[in-house]
Amino acid sequence: MNQSIEQLGFAIVPNVLTPDEVVGLTVSLGTITSAGRRGVLTEPAISSFSRLGKILDLVRPNLGSEPRPVRAIYFNKTAEANWLVAWHQDVAIAVEERKEVAGFTGWSVKDGIPHVQPPEELLENMLTVRVHLDDCDDTNGALQVMAGTHRLGRLSADEIQELRGKHIPVLCSTTAGGVLLMRPLLLHASGRSLGHRQRRILHIEYAGFDLPDGLNWHEVV
């Protein structure tokens, strides 16, 4: 699995959670009618889940130091809240407040939260864990990835468009309780759901470093 993440930028691990654990996590997250909810790492049940031994054991070998959860988002793709995501990399992190620090660029604000693009070497020491709470396939918006593109650095829009013609996307299908591990710089996208099944995912980002010069994570546990 660790070799897969190093070479391909992602790995799918089935049956990480039992059916009872899936139900418990879903209940803890509650019902949402929108496409998603940010800031869920601040909720005690989600904070505790993010530090479960079996989750950290998946992350730990892929970071340079002890993993720390730094952001969590709850996504729920339904027939009513349905969207597609174009090919992109996750190049921004959420921070407590804006501070000018060398190497941190591209400041923006999303839902009132400051975001910034850190140096590439920091993004390379992060890992995203996507916990699937429903079966996920090509009919309900499973993630697609371009294997190996995490090793190409931060890409421009033109470079992404060029890569689309060279790579065959990999569909990251899994069943409820399965986990997708992925590097932030891996190119990924998703289509709209084609039916009425939900596609609930808990997205947790882990970092193997502290932020420098007074910058602080927005949601760090």
C-alpha termini separation:
26 Å
* CATH architectural category: Sandwich
Task: Calculate Rg over CA atoms.
Answer: 17 Å
What number of structural domains do the residues give? 1
**CA-based shape:** globular
Task: Describe this entry's structure for a reader.
The chain has 221 residues and is an alpha+beta fold. It has a single domain (2-88, 120-200), classed as q2cbj1_9rhob like domain (Jelly Rolls). It has six helices and 13 strands. It has helices spanning 2-8, 19-29, 44-50, 53-59, 120-123, 157-164, and strands at residues 10-13, 36-38, 68-77, 85-88, 93-94, 105-110, 113-117, 126-132, 143-145, 170-171, 179-182, 188-190, 199-207. The strands form three sheets. It has a six-stranded antiparallel β-sheet. Strand 6 (105-110) and strand 7 (113-117) form a beta hairpin. It is globular. The mean pLDDT is 93.
Quickly list its features:
single chain, 221 residues, alpha+beta, Jelly Rolls, six-stranded antiparallel sheet, globular
Q: Short description, anyone?
A:
The protein has six helices and 13 strands. With 221 residues, it is an alpha+beta fold. The chain is globular and about 45 Å long.
List the helices and strands and how they pair.
Elements: H1 2-8, E1 10-13, H2 19-29, E2 36-38, H3 44-50, H4 53-59, E3 68-77, E4 85-88, E5 93-94, E6 105-110, E7 113-117, H5 120-123, E8 126-132, E9 143-145, H6 157-164, E10 170-171, E11 179-182, E12 188-190, E13 199-207
Antiparallel strand pairs: 1-11, 2-3, 3-13, 4-12, 5-7, 6-7, 8-11, 8-13, 9-10, 9-12
